[in-house]
Design goal:
Helices cover about 40% and strands about 20% of the residues. It has five helices and nine strands, in the order αβββαβαβαββββα. The chain binds nickel (II) ion. Nickel (II) ion binds near residues 80, 81, 84, 88 and 173.
Length: about 210
């Protein structure tokens, strides 16, 4: 009769250890999963891979620029192309709306439109294009290689597509808006179609934290 409670106790302990193990795995997954959520606010999300980094491009004013040109400012970055029939105009309008919602705080933000179609998007064409969206917006272009390099750093997908319904080719491209911090660090990204008001909440948290020295 003495062995039975001992066996029962061992069984309970094994079950308890199992439960603790499962709880630990669930907790770890929760913590790991929560890293995918933007800490300062819902709406943006962070990435499991490194995003962003150095670049050398040409602005729509014909000036050579690099990531260092924009140190000290937050960047709102979108990749697309001026001939885009649908998605790009919507996202650039959303970016412009977000900047306008921010009021005075918008002075901390530099919106950038980076082309994935450098063969057609010359600086002068970009100048006309970005002016349609926001006076603060800067269009960036470069050589095929320079664009390929920055697209790789931002994990941006793009490819040329022949479309029968258009005379010229179109570009397939990924559709995210990236928030980069004043030291060139990736902070957050927004899926295409994110409400500008949601973007503003996330951006403001980062801008406020930065102003507070966080
Ligand atoms: Ni587009």
């Amino acid at each position: 009769m003495r062995r039975t409670p001992t066996l029962a106790l061992i069984s309970v302990m094994i079950l308890a250890l199992g439960a603790i193990g499962i709880a630990a795995v669930v907790a770890w997954q929760f913590i790991a999963g929560s890293r995918m959520v933007d800490p300062p606010g819902r709406g943006g999300f962070t990435a499991a891979v490194k995003i962003g980094g150095p670049f050398k491009l040409v602005s729509h004013r014909g000036e050579k620029v690099s990531d260092e040109t924009y140190r000290g400012r937050f960047l709102l970055v979108y990749f697309g192309y001026a001939y885009c029939p649908d998605v790009c105009p919507t996202e650039l309008a959303n970016m412009a709306a977000a900047i306008d919602y921010m009021g005075e705080a918008a002075s901390a933000i530099q919106p950038l439109f980076i082309t994935v179609d450098p063969e057609r998007d010359s600086p002068s064409l970009m100048a006309n294009y970005v002016a349609q969206f926001h006076p603060a917006m800067v269009g960036l272009t470069g050589t095929n290689q320079e664009i390929a390099d920055i697209a790789k750093r931002y994990r941006v997908f793009y490819r040329k597509v022949k479309d029968e319904s258009f005379n010229e080719y179109i570009m397939d491209h990924s559709n995210f808006i990236y928030l980069i911090g004043p030291n060139g660090e990736f902070l957050s990204m927004f899926r295409g179609g994110t409400d500008p008001a949601v973007m503003v909440k996330v951006i403001n948290k980062y801008v406020e934290n930065h102003a507070a020295g966080a």
